[in-house]
Specification:
The chain has 15 helices and 2 strands. It is mostly helical. The mean pLDDT is 91.
Length: 362
């Protein structure tokens, strides 16, 4: 909004030329989202407490300590993330850019699914919300709509292609099947982040790290000079998503202020499903879907641990881990919650650096 309003005045007021720079507006989005989170966070938390009563239901089969330490903590804190991210994006991004609208609306759509799921859990005081099949069906429909919209805005020589990290100019054309890949990436990323959200600060840290990483990737992939130098697929218009990534970073930092151990509020499906969908769709736009699997490797690890646990138990009657997702396994081993969170953050940082290395190592 600010870009559209103030850029035409830059010829008369030189200082307003700053609004033409994506880097400046990304910084503005970070600070705006952070400020909104910090200012409205206490109000949102009080409101959530007043309407939820007992707070998020704690799994009876989870770690015993959670029943004592986390009982009564409100959930649906993702509302704060979406509020901050949405306002900051609308203020600082170029709203004539179609990619911005696709990613923002998809993020809000997945957030709405999570909101309904969380609402059913807290009102019925059960760990089960929306039916898994219903939730998955709605996610697939939203991802399909986003896939066709992204394809329509992407140049034809890239719209149905998958780029290979570490390889120069290697694009694999999947044709109409690429829509299936997009759905898998968006829905998979959304639910992978959701599985990671199990300890105070555990999910939001890697979300911030991944958003920062993809903010850089968006800027480079949308810039002709840098894309040519690094031999990346040039996606016209993708650079504007760096502003949205900045808003996600700021919103994440603000939420972390209240979610740091001991958490005053939980993210809930409202925030985790939305954040994962945002990262997934951004990776699709920038043609870095496979790099997301590296940068978000921690989310992948959490998901794989659940799959391995389920398959092993059904096939042999034995569990590989003491509890899945894997962060609960380490809790069962006696690791302190902050220890698990910080060590997982370290892993996320290392994976993000590896993901960034793919931009140059080709």
């Amino acid at each position: 909004m600010l870009f559209i309003l103030l850029s035409p005045l830059s010829d008369d007021i030189g200082a307003l030329r700053l609004f033409s720079f994506i880097t400046f507006r990304t910084g503005g989005a970070i600070l705006t989202a952070l400020l909104i989170s910090l200012v409205f966070g206490p109000l949102v938390i009080r409101w959530l407490k007043s309407v939820q009563g007992k707070g998020q239901p704690i799994r009876s089969d989870g770690p015993e300590s959670h029943i004592i330490t986390k009982a009564g903590t409100p959930t649906m804190g993702g509302v704060l993330i979406l509020l901050s991210l949405g306002i900051a994006t609308l203020l600082w991004a170029d709203l004539s850019n179609g990619f911005v609208w696709i990613v923002l609306l998809l993020t809000l759509g997945f957030g709405a699914i999570g909101f309904v799921d969380d609402y059913l859990k807290v009102t019925h005081q059960t760990s089960k919300g929306l039916s898994g099949y219903v939730k998955l069906a709605i996610e697939i429909v939203l991802a399909l709509i986003a896939a066709f919209a992204i394809a329509a805005l992407t140049e034809s020589h890239l719209s149905s292609h998958l780029a290979m990290p570490f390889l120069k100019d290697v694009l694999i054309n999947f044709g109409w099947m690429f829509v299936v890949i997009v759905v898998f990436v968006v829905v998979g990323a959304s639910n992978a982040v959701n599985l990671t959200d199990g300890l105070d600060g555990l999910a939001i840290g890697p979300i911030i790290i991944a958003a920062m990483t993809f903010g850089i990737i968006c800027y480079l992939a949308g810039n002709t000079v840098y894309a040519n130098y690094l031999q990346l697929p040039l996606v016209v218009g993708a650079g504007e998503l760096a502003v949205l990534c900045g808003a996600m970073v700021g919103a994440g930092l603000g939420f972390l202020w209240f979610n740091a151990p001991p958490a005053m509020v939980f993210m809930g499906d409202t925030g985790s499903l939305a954040s994962g969908a945002a990262l997934g769709s951004i990776s699709v736009v920038t043609k870095h879907e496979l790099v997301l699997a590296i940068v978000g490797g921690l989310f992948v690890l959490e998901t794989v641990s659940v799959i391995v646990q389920v398959v092993s138990f059904k096939a042999t009657g034995r569990r590989v881990f003491r509890m899945a997702p894997i962060h609960h396994h380490f809790e069962k081993l006696g690791w302190a919650e902050p220890t698990i969170v910080i060590r997982f953050w370290i892993i996320a940082i290392v994976l993000a650096l590896v993901g960034l290395a793919t931009l140059k190592l080709r």
